Amino acid sequence: MNEHEQFDRLKALKWLEGDERMFVKLKAIFMKNIPSQVDQLKAFLDAGDDRSAERAAHTIMGAAAMLGASAMSDEAGKIEKSAIAGDLNTARLHFTKFVEEYEIVMEELAADGGE
Amino acid sequence: MNILVVDDDEMVRYVLTEKLSESGFSAAAAVDGLSALELFRGTSFDAVLLDLKMPGMDGIETLKELRKHDPDIPVIMVTAFGDIATAVETIKLGAYDFVEKPPQISRIVVTLKRAIEKAALERKVRALGKSVEESAALKQAYEKLKELDQVKTTFLSSVSHELRTPLTSIIGYTEISRKKLSKLTSRISRDDPKTTKDLEQVEENLEIVVSESQRLAGMIESILDLTAMEAGTAEWRWEPLSLREVIENATSAFSPKFREKGLEFVVAIEDNLPMIKGDRFRISQVITKILSNAAAFTDQGRVTVSAKRADNDIVLSIADTGRGIPASRHGVIFEKFSQIGDALTDKPKGVGLGLSKCRLIVEYHNGKIWVDSSPGKGSVFSFSLPMLSEW
Is the pLDDT confidence value at B92 over 90? Predict the structure, then answer.
């Protein structure tokens, strides 16, 4: 991974067993679905719905991991863990950091044209 | 072969259905448990790949419902990293195996083929409906099932090995961090009470990380120990033993614990017990496990350990006045992934390997283990060990 990149294309391709076509398709699904899932997560956090926030964070965590976006996945994981513990204040703090990672990943994915 | 993929994540559904099609399967996908059940009622599937954590009906509930409709359907759980304990729980509920996300397709294909083959063999065994000894075909099928079970044990063992290495690092580095933090806290304590308080909180959190990681390490060790015994690679130290000595050593650690709980603790060993041949450490493990269960599930009354001669065996019994176990569970509590806690509380602890390990240890000693118990009346766990002269 390039040190400036927030997603690890090689890592993603490794579990896809080198299938570049699959990676491009997954990237498209990710970019289509994730913005609304992030909005939903924020809404759950704002509404104090820890159970739904936990599930939403879990889904985002898995999706980011599949594209090799480790930092974004880790931050989503922290939100999930705080939500499981019922600590939505901490979850909201993690969400701020998560959004930073998420925005970088989306920018880089949009610029990613394959290698 | 028709596979049902159940996952709320479109990316997982896409990858699995595409890759399974490329590997010669046909695959359908469902976004949640309810849609999965609907599809399942109308279509015949050979196996199910099921996400553990989904909104609405989660993986565990869906697994239970699927198995109500078809008790033979092989279900493979797809889990996120960190959900291993829950995944093990699903195996107890009848799942064939679990794979971690992101799902490696080559491993999934191998697991699916084995699962489907095993289900077909089980159906064949049932259809033939005769005892293993009466039919060569059945015998062959039985051997194949045993082989598949062995593959599963090997897998469990290798996963546990893989988990142990990073866990050791986690425990080590967390301990180092906690100690450094402790020094730091003592250095600034007089100047900044607020920071000190915050640092102490972090220190406490690290202590929890260490103790929970050690608990997890204990579970992993338990799995490795059991799989080594099953595979015949565990080390045994056979020697002539005085059972009195082994019992007294193993029980001494429990006296304070029972006293603390207000329980009477009695150890009654018959005089002049003959020697046995055994592994001191392993027999202690059996006694310790049964006494730990007695300690966990007995709130009042007494716990009695007794040993006496019965024909050519020595029978060791541990009786408690705890909650007791229903007769329907007596046959399964010595099986892998069966938890005695299931029968007694809503919150079982551990992986459910303790008593199955006890059974293996006793069987290695050519002995037998059994339980007499009923709810509300307590339990008596007993095991027999042949005398040294019988070896």
Answer: no
Mutant choice from A37, A58, A60 vs B, greatest count of B C-beta within 10 A: A58
- B252 and B191 in one domain? no
Which structural domain, as residue segments, surrounds residue B178? 160-231
**Residue A2: inside a domain:** no
Query: How near does any CA of chain A get to the CA of B60, in Å?
Result: 15
User: What mean pLDDT is reported for chain B?
Assistant: 85
Domain count, chain B: 3
- Of A86-95, B37-46, B118-127, the poorest mean pLDDT is in B118-127
Residues of A with CB under 8 A from a CB of B: 15-17, 22, 25-26, 29-30, 33, 52, 55, 58-59, 61-63, 65-66
Q: How far apart are CA A44 and CA B368, in angstroms?
A: 55
Put simply, the answer to whether B14 touches A25 (Cβ < 8 Å) is yes
Residue A83: give its domain's CATH number: 1.20.120
Which of A86-90, B10-14, B70-74, B181-185 shows the lowest per-residue confidence on average (mean pLDDT)? B181-185
Q: Are residues B248 and B298 in the same domain?
A: yes
Measured between beta carbons, the chain B residues lying within 8 angstroms of A55 are 53-55
Q: Show the domain range for A105.
A: 9-111
Mean pLDDT: which of B81-95, B304-318, B338-352 is highest?
B304-318
Who's near A77: CB < 8 A, 6+ residues apart? Answer: A57, A61
Q: What is the mean pLDDT of residues A9-26?
A: 84
Report chain B's terminal Cα–Cα distance, integer Å: 52
Residues A105 and A72: beta-carbon distance below 8 Å: yes
The count of other CB atoms within 10 Å of the CB of residue B86 is 17
Question: Which of B14, B55, B80 faces A62 most closely, judged by CB atoms?
Answer: B80
| Domain-located, residue A73 | yes
